[in-house]
Amino acid sequence: xxxxxxxxxxxxxxxxxxTSVVLIAVAAAGMALYLNRHETTHAETPSAGDPExxxxxxxxxxxxxLDRLTVAWNRNWESYxxxxxxxxxxxxxGEPTLSDGCTAREDVMKRDLTETRVGDSNSCLxxxxxxIDPYTGERLPYDRxxxxxxxxxxxxxxxxxxxxGASAWSPEQREKFANDLGNxxxxxxxxxxxxxxxxxxxxxxxxxxxxxxxxxxxxxxSRWGLTVQPTExxxxxxxxxxxxxxxxx
Length: 249
What we know:
By secondary structure, this protein is α+β, with helices and mostly antiparallel strands. Helices cover 43% and strands 11% of the residues. The protein has two domains: 1-44; 45-240, no CATH class. The chain is globular.
């Protein structure tokens, strides 16, 4: 091949490579922007399963909401009964269905897992998927037909809700709280068990999740009119300081 032809071919090949790199970079940036918007929408708008579920407050709203919460020590702890929050959360089954025909557990699995495959005859059922656990950051595979390391957590636990105001609610209100999708997360089994019904002054997730955890906690307590203990409020304020930009207190 003549030298000039080889030079021309090489230039064309270099231009092709440069164009390909630019297109790949643009595509990657577009995908990142899409995922970021998708995650934000997913976190801050009510679920299709229950349009009345708690909406996640942003950091500024959460700080204001925390200041407005009634501060009081927990009460009526000795009379707590998990069955008072309706069927489905005591391990006996019988969960109510939400407006989309799925249970709260099913909606949370569909919302929080990625790479999901749902049932052909029942789209409420997640057959397989992957969870990036918000509490630990661990990547957890899910298969409906195998033992799972994933559980559904009430962020504000039913026990803590009872002690901070829910003991005075009607059975209907308690059942609605138990199935509030804004207060439910799919998480690692061990982290869920370690957390139990502890408040943020007693248990915290990984540092990277402090901001969203505190926002969700305050969102739920604000929406449902629950109280916070002094130590709980202080811990939540510290966690909200991890949000960007931090607040000067």
